[in-house]
Amino acid sequence: MIPQGLYTAPPMEHCDSLISATWIVPVEPAGRVLEGHAVAVSNGRIVDLLRSAEARLKYQASATFDRPGHVLVPGLVNAHTHAAMTLLRGYADDLPLESWLNDRIWPAEKRWASAEMVRDGTNLAIAEMLTAGITCFSDQYFFPEIIAETASDAGMRANVGAPVLGFPTAWAGDASDYLGKAVDLLHDPYAGHPLISTCFAPHSTGVLSDEAFTELRVIADQLDVPVQIHLHETAAEVEAAVTSTGMRPLERLETLGLVNASLLAVHAVHVTEAEIELLADCNVAVAHCPRSNLKLASGIAPLAAFREAGMTVGLGTDGAASNNTLDMLSEANTAALLAKVRSDDAAVLDARDALELATMGSARALGLDTDIGSIEPGKWADLTCVDLGRLNSQPLYDPVSQLIYAVRADQVSDVWVAGKHLLDSGELTHMSSDDLATRADEWRERIAGKGPSE
Amino acid sequence: MIPQGLYTAPPMEHCDSLISATWIVPVEPAGRVLEGHAVAVSNGRIVDLLRSAEARLKYQASATFDRPGHVLVPGLVNAHTHAAMTLLRGYADDLPLESWLNDRIWPAEKRWASAEMVRDGTNLAIAEMLTAGITCFSDQYFFPEIIAETASDAGMRANVGAPVLGFPTAWAGDASDYLGKAVDLLHDPYAGHPLISTCFAPHSTGVLSDEAFTELRVIADQLDVPVQIHLHETAAEVEAAVTSTGMRPLERLETLGLVNASLLAVHAVHVTEAEIELLADCNVAVAHCPRSNLKLASGIAPLAAFREAGMTVGLGTDGAASNNTLDMLSEANTAALLAKVRSDDAAVLDARDALELATMGSARALGLDTDIGSIEPGKWADLTCVDLGRLNSQPLYDPVSQLIYAVRADQVSDVWVAGKHLLDSGELTHMSSDDLATRADEWRERIAGKGPSE
Q1: Above 70 in pLDDT, residue B362?
Q2: What is the distance between the alpha carbons of residues B315 and B287, in angstroms, rounded to a whole number?
Q3: Contact: A452, B397; criterion CB under 8 Å
Q4: Is the pLDDT of residue B454 over 50?
Q5: How far apart are the first and last CA of chain A?
Q6: In a mutagenesis test of the A interface, which of B293, B397, B435, B447 is the best target, namely the one with the most A β-carbons within 10 Å?
Q7: Residue of chain A whose Cα is closest to the Cα of B440
């Protein structure tokens, strides 16, 4: 016993928020499930992860959050989407990729894509993502400067891809024009921004010339920014490339010097064993989008083979026009189930692996893993809290299993991005659902020209 | 103009409930989406489906329900589950079927299956299913008399399969004992019951002798009740049968006289073209359980081929120990996505087909289609109402597309079974979620012997 008067308690430290939940799954180190722990947050960053009892003695917090029966995980990272396309959700269902794109999506975009459409669509997507526990999204769409501004205004983390195409759209004319506008976005305004990072997003190999790719490569190297591209998404894409260039898309990218650690290959559904080896050898990351690949009948990507080859794999929802939701818990669930069936092995990817894909995996794929993806002191406080108390997640043998295999996105209770509490007990704190729904309906009326099912 | 005094309005008719929603999808006739309509219900049955304006003039209702922004569909019919296994949700994840069953599930059942466990597990499952819009489930588990009683007490519709196995469990000893107990259940107490129907549920061909199957067939014919069996679920099951009997399971059932219109083949993942032809020729129905088949790495059943062959196909969740949810909207979504990718054709099965699978298809597979499965006068008023106003289902181009591709089960607002309002604005009207959760946790403690992740 310490005699009274001789003992002086160490002074308490201040922190902005102290968040405790029954379970905390930090993801790094792998496999750990902490009970009765708390996360201390200051200046937007995680400063401590410790036992709740200890935290109460050590920290004086401006705000305290106790979430019994909940699990706290790193904010989910959506490695691939087209946020503004949320306004086209359900506009073109039950069609294969080529006809979906050529007959429905591109004509609609040609008519309607605008700064205003991108702002409204991105806001709707951000609201949906936050309520589903997503704290960061990698986007590629027209008007990326609007996407960046919209995300920043909403307090949402975004990795914004500047699109590069070879034909005119509302945003740019030819490839040079796209590249010029991309450089404007990438070069300056978001350097060192706490929420926004940027990259080049050439749409796919079919829409750009060798010259355009070469120009892009030179600029990307100079600016040291990553490049993401839809690659080997469908068999038809690969065949068309072979017909027109004599090379498969990955092969062509390799000859153009783009196959390296800066590349994020989105989809990678149709890849040979040799191509997996090439991707692994060159440290190319993959953004796996299983639900979109199913819905457009593109195929099932060899996720287990990617992981076996030691590749970095993230998980993405793709756009709501081909998914049709921006729900990373559902995506992680689908990724796990499909990996099992494609490998004839129910153990090939477990619930912990699936959670890793949706957090650290995606963060690594986007080159953001030193800043986000796990609950570790020093990283941004991007956190997602999920209520495991609902009947559909009872009984509870294992919180991670429950999170991946039983939980629905509506069980997400709280979300913090860089320490800011953007979802509180299931309610958006900084966005109005009613306003977003009204704007969405106005766009539906314009785009469809009539009410649903009239 | 009709001169006043000469015109007498027709007397209003009484009905118990008048339910209107912005959209009503009756499923039969196929493809129809009604706007501004209402369903009149009396004595548990649908008596009318008409324009809301007309309904207000025609009916004096004891209770009126208006659900703007919602879609009303037939109650979802879960063609295959093991309700009590909800208590084993998450207890044995990431394992292939054989090891899942032999190393985890059967030992746990041997230790814990009891009338009490079946009652508590079935109640938990019913609560989960109701909140997810399911109004009828086909079950096979031990203590079927408890399942029937529990469902009936809860006001839930159930098709109860009496299990038949060749080895002793807590419920019965040898095959003859199972059959005797099955006959007790099937013969009498539920004849003409408004909610409960029954069938034989031999577990799988591997666990029963030819003699037992023959005895079962004779009794099933006498009583004129259907037979459901897990069939060709995994490649290993088919191989083991060939090794031990020289025949594939379906072939053996055919020689035993069981392949006919009374048979419901559950799973049917590994079937040849010739077997599909046989199943179609003999009017065998299939219960398709895509998510369970993925999770146990069993395979992807050829749903599109079944439909092309003109077969009756229903949709089931299977038990929560292998899914891990009892969510027919998610199951219909997965069925549609998988059919597309397995057929290399994004148009092979659309949102309307998926809804049909989950309602009329399942009702037909269970032999209940004259009573349930669509919103048609004369059928039981088993109805499910879904809120399409949430952000994740905005904008709304097509309510059926939204229901299958974007909605989550938490958007189910109301459920009626035989006209009884069992879910009201998302809340169970006749069951206590807190009590169910407490019971589930007590079972977890017994079964796992400790807290989660300890």
Answers
A1: yes
A2: 5
A3: yes
A4: no
A5: 79
A6: B397
A7: A395
Q: How far apart, in whole angstroms, are the C-alpha atoms of residue B323 and residue A118?
A: 38
Predicted local distance difference test score (pLDDT) of residue A95:
86
Q: Tell me what percent of the residues of chain B surpass a pLDDT of 70.
A: 97
Which 8-state DSSP code applies to residue B201? E
DSSP string, A150-163: HHHHHT-EEEEEEE
| 3 state DSSP class of A316 | coil
- Cα–Cα distance for residue pair A185/A193, rounded to 1 Å: 13
- Given B127, B295, B436, which is nearest A337 (Cβ)? B295
Strand boundaries in B119-211, DSSP class E: 134-140, 157-164, 196-202
Q: Are B304 and B340 within 8 A, CB to CB?
A: no
Give the tokens for residue B165.
Answer: 């196995």
pLDDT tens string A141-199: 999 999 999 999 999 999 999 999 999 999 999 999 999 999 988 877 788 899 999 99
Mean pLDDT, residues A194-214 taken together = 96
Quote ipTM for the complex.
0.95
- pTM (2 decimals)? 0.96
Instruction: Measure CB to CB from residue A444 to each of B90, B397, B408 and give the nearest one.
Output: B397
Which of B90, B325, B351 lies closest to A401 in CB terms?
A: B90
pLDDT in tens, A274-295: 999 999 999 999 999 999 999 9
In sequence order, the β-bridge partners of residue B120 are: none
B340 and A401: CB-CB below 8 Å?
no
Phi, psi of A231 (to 5 degrees): -140, 125
By the 10 Å C-beta count (0-12 exposed, 13-18 middle, 19+ buried), A192 is classed as exposed
CB under 8 A, 24+ apart: contacts of A272-276: A273/A305, A275/A232, A275/A248, A275/A250, A276/A302, A276/A305, A276/A306, A276/A309, A276/A311
Please check whether residue B66 touches A, CB under 8 A. no
Are B375 and B27 a contacting pair, CB within 8 Å? yes
CA A370 to chain centroid, in Å, comes to: 16
Neighbouring C-beta atoms of residue B426, cutoff 10 Å: 13
Closest CA to B320 of B80, B77, B75, B98: B80
Q: Where are the beta strands (DSSP E) in A108-226?
A: 134-140, 157-164, 196-202
Confidence of residue B450 (pLDDT cuts 50, 70, 90): low
Instruction: Decide: A290 and A335 in contact? Cβ < 8 Å.
Output: yes
The answer to whether the Cβ–Cβ distance between A93 and B401 falls below 8 Å is: yes
**Spatial CB neighbours of B182, under 8 Å, sequence gap ≥ 6:** B144, B162, B163, B164, B200, B219
Closest residue in B to A322 (Cα) is B405
Nearest CA in chain B to A449: B397
Residues of B in contact with A346 (CB under 8 A): 94-97, 100, 295-297
pLDDT at B350: 96
In sequence order, the 6+-apart residues with CB closer than 8 A to the CB of A215 are A175, A176, A179
- Does B224 contact chain A (CB < 8 Å)? no
| Best to test chain B binding among A134, A337, A388 (most B CBs inside 10 Å) | A337
Domains, chain B, ordered by start:
13-74+381-418 (2.30.40.10), 76-365 (3.20.20.140)
Chain B residues with CB under 8 Å of A392 CB are 128, 131-132, 325-327, 409
**Does the CB of B384 have a partner CB in chain A at under 8 Å?**
no
Q: Are strands A285-288 and A313-315 parallel, antiparallel or unpaired?
A: parallel
- How far off is chain A from B437, nearest CA to CA, in Å? 6
B108-167 residues touching A, CB cutoff 8 A: 124, 127-128, 131-132
Chain B nearest-CA residue for A349: B94
Beta carbons within 10 angstroms of residue B29's beta carbon:
8
Residue A53 in contact with partner chain B when CB distance is under 8 A: no
